[in-house]
Design brief:
479 residues, alpha/beta, Fumarate Reductase Iron-sulfur Protein, Chain B, domain 2, FAD/NAD(P)-binding domain, 19 helices, FAD/NAD-bd_sf, iron, FAD/NAD-binding_dom, DPD_II, 4Fe-4S
Length: 479
């Protein structure tokens, strides 16, 4: 009888790739997890129960066929595992690194619910695709035939890149416009290297270029090129700008020097630490935490990135103020644990009331909170505790309160582009179609600030519908 390769969760315990010691990793921007070795990846993949209703798959925004590629990995059929993985995910090695698996696939694993510890899906996904790159299995787009249609994509983040890949593989002529000097969007300049090393992103950009995708960098739509000009040059346009406008703080002293936006801080760090760029604001100390008492305000994944970056820059102390408790924070629990290991202090149930300092911030005026009745989201709403205020010394305060859409109608001189009351672009669910003929929108500019994996899903779905719309137009023209 053949040996059963799966369902080994009752004999083999859950194991993660080795994590570098906090005392070592907190001094550099290298990824903190090592790669699985072949035997370890096969062992951990073999823990999958191959359940009849795979909740890991249904709770993945891309509906990745996780049980099948786990089984293929467990049985040593790694190239087939990669083919299955990339069939539904344009960037599996990126999702394997930065997806909050504890809230998605792994958090809904059946054996996790039964007390055996989840399958380490994300680490196996990363291993599969990193091996595929090493073995040369990852190929640029090579369309069977070229199409005449042209698509312009505004934004080189995960949503725009996913759409570009799908369209180019179908033979469409694709041009991607982006305001930055490199592709990747927040993958490149927002997420620190210790979570996503930048060569991982850059090789994907090169793969797209090698496959025929044209990139136009340092292009600010509305300044260097108008929205109408882009529409005139292409048969369809996909808006994939993401959301970059930082939510602000109010209160006395909120405009003091030393209070900075998370996106500015992270971009400066990524440029200097990962690319060796010269950033004047970093060199001057304005966006550098070295030797400073740092306070980060917020409890999401961006806040975790800022906290852990400040540790690596050599801050004197790093504290996080968050108005709810640990159980109600939006950020990944795994990231919070990593931050604590590296020396970050969390001040739960606290919120800023204002800031002290004449011209430069010297302290945050903090008010203590408690959790009251649930709000519209179902989470307990924070309530002020009277008379419990205190001051937290700070030389650098980083605002990580989330992102909102920029005012595209104004920036692009496009009042005809319909937006919602939140400023996001009005677009049809799944297809991404807007009210403007031939104009689509995907990712955070439609959803609001969300996950990379959702942007990839939106980009892939939109590309599929763009191709269908092209085919319909071609059929009508042929009649």
């Amino acid at each position: 009888m053949a040996k059963q390769p799966m369902l080994k969760f009752v004999k083999i315990e859950r194991d993660m790739p080795e994590k570098r010691e906090a005392s070592v990793r907190s001094h550099d921007f290298d990824e903190i997890y090592a790669e699985f070795a072949k035997a370890k990846a096969e062992e951990q993949a073999s823990r999958c129960s191959q359940c009849g209703v795979p909740y890991c798959q249904s709770h993945c925004p891309l509906h990745n066929n996780i049980p099948d590629w786990l089984r293929l990995t467990a049985t040593g059929r790694l190239e087939e595992a990669y083919e299955i993985s990339q069939a539904t995910n344009t960037f599996p090695e990126i999702c394997g690194r930065i997806c909050p698996q504890d809230r998605l696939c792994e958090g809904n694993c059946v054996i996790e619910q039964s007390g055996h510890g989840t399958v380490t899906i994300g680490s196996v996904e990363k291993y599969i695709t990193d091996t595929a790159w090493e073995q040369g299995w990852v190929k640029p787009a090579a369309p069977v035939s070229e199409r005449d249609e042209s698509v312009g994509i505004i934004g080189a983040g995960p949503g725009g890149l996913a759409a570009a890949d799908m369209l180019r593989r179908a033979g469409v002529q694709v041009t991607v416009y982006d305001r930055y000097d490199r592709g990747g969007g927040l993958l490149t300049y927002g997420i620190p290297g210790f979570k996503l090393e930048k060569d991982v992103v850059m090789r994907r950009i090169k793969q797209l270029e090698d496959g025929g995708v044209r990139f136009v960098f340092n292009c600010n739509v509305g300044e260097d090129l108008s929205f109408d000009e882009i529409r005139d040059q292409h048969d369809a346009v996909i808006i994939a700008t993401g959301v970059y406008k930082s939510r602000d703080l109010r209160g006395p002293g909120a405009g003091a020097k030393g209070i900075v936006k998370a996106i500015d801080y992270l971009t400066a760090s990524n440029r200097t630490a990962n690319f060796g760029d010269t950033v004047p604001e970093f060199e001057s100390g304005e966006l550098n935490a070295k030797g400073k008492k740092v306070v980060v305000i917020g409890g999401g994944d961006t806040a975790m990135d800022c906290l852990r970056t400040a540790i690596r820059q050599g801050a004197e102390s790093v504290k996080c103020l968050y108005r709810r408790d640990r159980a109600n924070m939006p950020g990944s629990q795994r990231e919070t644990a990593n931050a604590e290991e590296e020396g970050v202090q969390f001040e739960w149930l606290t919120a800023p009331k204002g800031f002290k300092g004449d011209e430069t911030v010297e302290a945050v005026m903090v008010q203590k909170m408690r959790l009251g009745h649930p709000d519209a989201t179902g989470r307990q709403a924070p309530e002020l505790i009277e008379g419990a205020d205190y001051e937290e010394p700070a030389d650098l305060v980083i605002k990580a309160l989330g992102f909102e859409p920029e005012e595209l109608q104004t920036l692009w001189g496009a009042p005809e582009l319909e937006v919602t009351r939140w400023g996001t672009v009005k677009a049809e669910f799944t297809s991404g179609r807007t009210a403007l003929p031939g104009v689509y929108a995907v990712g955070d500019i439609v959803r609001g600030a969300s996950l990379v994996v959702w942007a990839i899903r939106d980009g892939r779905d939109c590309a599929e519908h763009v191709l269908k719309d092209f085919d319909k137009l071609a059929a009508i023209a042929a009649e």
